[in-house]
Specification:
The protein is built from six helices and four strands; from the N terminus they run H-H-H-E-H-E-E-H-H-E. The chain has one domain. 46% of the residues lie in helices and 16% in strands. The chain is α+β, with helices and mostly antiparallel strands. The chain is globular. Bound molecules: heme C.
Length: 167
């Protein structure tokens, strides 16, 4: 019985990774596919599909999302536990598969892993943007701070919160 229980209740970190992985994969696939059409099409993926995919990857027990130190959309601002974890992850060597796990006072487990910028991301997060794209971004995000990056830079995190399991 005990073994069965252990199997049924996967460790919170495994639950977090299992939720973050499809979010990460589906978002990247959708984004890169849209980029083949146009940066404008990809814009919709980042602004509309991303929250949808985050919702799809979430469940009553696990919530996932994206956040960053330099934000484009303030709706992605980090919660306090995440701000600390993210500041630490930002100091890791570019490209490493680091992660942070934080246990909150109510037993919720927070999980975060870094996002390193790949060259195609620079179309919308780099130093110089195509004029049409620039105008669209400016209109949608007047306080955009997610610009001027280089490939390999720390862009932010994928995060998950796993609710405490009832005994
Ligand atoms: C076509 C333009 C475009 C491309 C290409 C793009 N992004 Fe974004 N990115 C956006 C937009 C627009 C937002 C704001 C989304 C929102 O409103 O939630 C955003 C938001 C983000 C966020 C959430 C934090 C924030 O600042 O709001 C992260 C993290 C991020 N992008 C990482 C990446 C990475 C990594 C890549 C490459 C794999 C990438 N982006 C490629 C346009 C783009």
């Amino acid at each position: 019985m005990l073994t069965l229980l252990l199997v049924l209740s996967a460790a919170p970190v495994d639950q977090a990774k299992a939720a973050v992985n499809p979010f990460k994969k589906n978002l990247k696939e959708a984004l890169f596919k849209a980029l083949e059409t146009s940066p404008e099409a990809a814009l919709d993926v980042c602004s509309q599909r991303a929250p949808e995919l985050a919702k799809a990857a979430s469940s009553p027990a696990v919530t996932v999302g994206r956040s960053a130190l330099k934000l484009r959309n303030t709706a992605n601002a980090p919660k306090p536990w995440l701000a600390t974890a993210m500041a630490e992850l930002a100091k890791e060597k570019s490209g490493t598969e680091a992660s942070r796990v934080v246990v909150l006072p109510d037993g919720t487990v927070g999980y975060a892993e870094p996002i390193w910028l790949a060259p195609p991301c620079l179309v919308c997060h780099g130093k110089t943007l195509a004029p049409g794209l620039e105008a669209k971004l400016k209109a949608a995000y007047p306080n955009d701070a997610a610009r001027g990056f280089e490939a390999g830079d720390f862009r932010g995190v994928f995060w998950a919160e796993v609710k405490p399991q009832k005994p």
